[in-house]
Specification:
With about 425 residues, this protein is α+β, with helices and mostly antiparallel strands. Helix content is about 50%, strand content about 15%.
Length: about 425
Amino acid sequence: MVLGTDYSWSSIPVNELILKAKKVYREYCAKRTDLLRKTMDTSEQRLQEIESLQEQISIMKMSPSSLSITQEELKEKIDREKKEEKATAALPHTMREKVTKGKAAVFLDDGDGINIEQIVLNDMADINAAVQITPKSIPVTPTRKQVEQKRNRKKQKMMAHTVNLKEYEAKMSEYDWAALQVIGDSGVSRYLNIEELFLKAKPDATKNRSRIAMSNLANIGLLNMEKVTNPLKGNFNVYQLTDMGSRIYRDRYNKAPAMSEMDKIMAEHDNCQHGYGIRIVTEVLKEKGTFADVCDTNRRNPIKLADGISYIPDIICTDETGTKMYIEYECANHTQANFNGKCNKMCKVSSILNFIVPNRADMDKLCTQIKTWIQNRGVTSLKHITIRVTGAFQIKDVDLLDDKGWKYVFKPGKNIEPEVNF
């Protein structure tokens, strides 16, 4: 348009108007895309700067002696570690796995590049870890809690490689060292088991001394502690070495620590609460002697169903004839939709669905979910199915092979309400 000149949109041919509109729109999109890219680049740069500063602050908090290090030196140290991580990611799978397990190390050359070929293998760690399994050797579908735990472990690992070990060692007594060695050597996690081994290693110590040693190791950051529920007796504490604890153990005893029971259970069952409940029920079933085999580590051998779907029972009990009974340890914290899906899977494997729950309150919740599932699924399709429910505190003195040994028995083909046995 020219100011003062007559102008009318109608004077422009339609085809030309369309072409001009397309051209303007393309230019607008290109400018907007360019602006978004510049904004993302700037945001990424700022995010890296913030993460670097947070790491520096964390290191300074954990290690007072690091205050004497200049900011440039600290930044250079962190950048170098990031390059080492990048170099590790570029390695072949087998070599990367060795680096991750601590059996190999990646070093940078003196220049700006990364010399991926400079790998130093630790033969002692190779031999010691050859007979161990790791949490990564057990396939696990990550939950939100697991992702958070991995993030925390990564942060701990970063700290473990930058903090001066002498500062931790100065805070440890001979009893603290004994407790650390017991956990690293054996991999035990339950406090009573740790206490038993500790008192054997230090005959002059008392139970109170054991509790103080464990508390001190947790307070200075060498142990992670979690309180879990025993469905038979109440709460108890379980422990695992932190990355710093593992590093100090490795530095002191020249070998990698054994994988803890807590790590194995979390890898198999996603979390300690559910995992230890399953483990305790399994121990009770083994003590009863009803079955030839009772297994609660079934993630390695899932039961394949149709369409690529698989079912992993919490517990598989096998009798002398090879007949299997599948049991789920259920805390009644699933959504109804997820519970329905789980029951539908179980129906494809067995005509008897067995549920053991921690307490009476969970038993009532589970029975409500079972009734809802039966109504959703339809009684006709479940005429051949039996659903049995009982509490973990009720399984010691009953015959689980008989319906009468279960608190509630649902037979949808007869009645939606369960039979109550005791």
